[in-house]
Specification:
This protein has about 325 residues and is an alpha+beta fold. The chain is built from 15 helices and seven strands. GO terms for molecular function: DNA-binding transcription factor activity; transcription cis-regulatory region binding.
Amino acid sequence: MLHSHLTTLNAVSLVLQAFKDDDVDAAALLDGSGISPADLGRADSRITTRQELLVCANAVARRREVGLELGRRMHVSCYGMLGYALLSSATLGDALRLAMQYPALLGTLFQLRLIDDGERIWFSASNYREAPHLAAFNAEFCLTSLKVICDDLLGQSLPLLASRFVHTAPDYQALYAETFNCPLHFEASDNAFAFERRWLDMPLPLADQITHRAMSERCRRQNLEFTGRQAWLGRIRQLLLDQLDAAPGLEGLAKQMNCSSRTLRRHLQELGSSYQQLLDELRFERAKQLLAEDQLPIYQIAEALGFSETASFRHAFLRWSGVAPSHFRA
């Protein structure tokens, strides 16, 4: 799957903080993501979810249970204007329903729902379609951060009745108790935690109608800009994907986007990317698909991806994946 969604640098910053005392160099955690330490200092930086997931994969390789820790660090203040809008909501239910309106601002990779089973409310995170090897990490990160949001909004810990997860029980299951002090179930149909229905109507201690109206409006505008930039990036990716055998170059792509090459370069830089980075990403994804099909010889795959020489494709694939195309296919 091609990761065309945009997100903030919050999760990446938390990853670096989590490993600060572990003597792990920041460059090792950012390796392969195209994110530089300088990017972390820009308040308006936007990255793709693919970049974020690459950093997370580097973190999980060093500490498999890190998703739980990162989720506990993801307080409501990490969400900018959306966080203020949630804090100033009238009730917990109002806040959660508002958060679900803006998944792009929340930065979630899941579909969030409130499910009433007749006895209790389940806050559910489902339909994960990103990197399969990070499914457990992202479920832990998502559900833990949602629980932290609820606690922050209420000004007290939200008592849970049960929690469930899609993945199998990990060997560090005991660490779940720090966040989910309730019965745990694994290999479920979704990721979710349950609480008594009455909590949805609980007034929030920082509720303020005027502030809430102002912050909600700013969230609406920010979401329009955010999703607009996502659509713009998606169009660029589709154009490149359709021309992998003869990439148009920065100038050619700019003409197809009806803008100057300078404007295109600037917009891509603002998104933490570049023409070559996007082209490499799309070539890599397509190469993995073609190699997995085990039909085309490698020299034809190289041609389909716009490489004039098979050797150039081999070198590029080795740089992208760490293994040669023939080894990947085997």
